[in-house]
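Archive transcription. Copying these from loose printouts into the bound notebook so they stop getting lost. Printout 1 of 2:
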Amino acid sequence: MYVYLCAATSDQKQTSTSVKMYRESSSSSESIECSYLTPILRKAVVDHVSDTFVATNVPLFALIDAARRGNTQLVEETAQIFMEHASKLIEVANVACSMSDQVEGIKLVRLAAMQIQHLSPQVVNAARILAARSTSKVALENMDIFRDTWEKYVRLLTEAVDEITTIEDFLAVSENHILEDINLCIQAMVERYPDRVGCTAVAIRGRFV
């Protein structure tokens, strides 16, 4: 089994990230330093970030829409998707931190991630209350407050992750994804799938935000 570990190493000239690959067996562990993998891993992390932070509010809007319609069953289904999405944002943000040496930026990422982790269950509870009282003005206002707060911290997390991400890697990865999305959009238009065109357009727009 191979386990990849990232560790910061420093010398007099620069601080770099070295990657060690450990091969674990029943009898011994072999350690192989693979510093040359660092750029590849860094781009892989940026790729993961780019995919995860596209259209971050879609699961939230689906949850709120179900709550406003008073559909409690749909609320539970969309709540699960929303919570999984929130967990994914936090997970990917932490991975980005592991590949960065920007101490202050990492602190901001983790602060925003912690706020999202605490807030997400409260957003779900607000949606459940609204679903049970879909005509209540108070329940709707309560939902709006939690929506605005959650969106604020997601924006903060997105900006913080952007700050600790190498701009060259991000632009290269984003360009590749945009080209892929455009091709998918053209294919959907040719095959006359309007829903797929809409979803792909949202993804393209999200990569420019």
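Printout 2 of 2:
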Amino acid sequence: MLKCKHQSALIRPSLTARSVGLKVLTGHGAAVDTTTAAGKLVFGIFAALAEFERELISERTVAGLISARARGRKGGRPFKMTAAKLRLAMASMGQPETKVGDLCEELGITRQTLYRHVSPKGELRPDGVKLLSLGSAA
């Protein structure tokens, strides 16, 4: 979706060229009638205020995320695979009698997650190494 300043730059001239105006009949914007000079002014002010508000919200959101990171908070969904689950998966995958479907169900992960971290022989893959290094740093 386009921002308001882009919309007014693209839409307003094409509507004006076709002699199309906007007239609000009820509600708080009842004074807006873009067929008059005063209405165009009010419409422009409303558009500028809406854009300003969006930018303020964006700035506050970014500041909040930075503040949360500084306090040690992380966003996003927690990983399903933990260091403990990974160690169990490595031990189980090294055994020939292991059924992958049962192991995944027991650990609460998908096959894709399992194989992304551990090879069929039970050896660590790069994502598994990364997970264990993050787990030891905590």
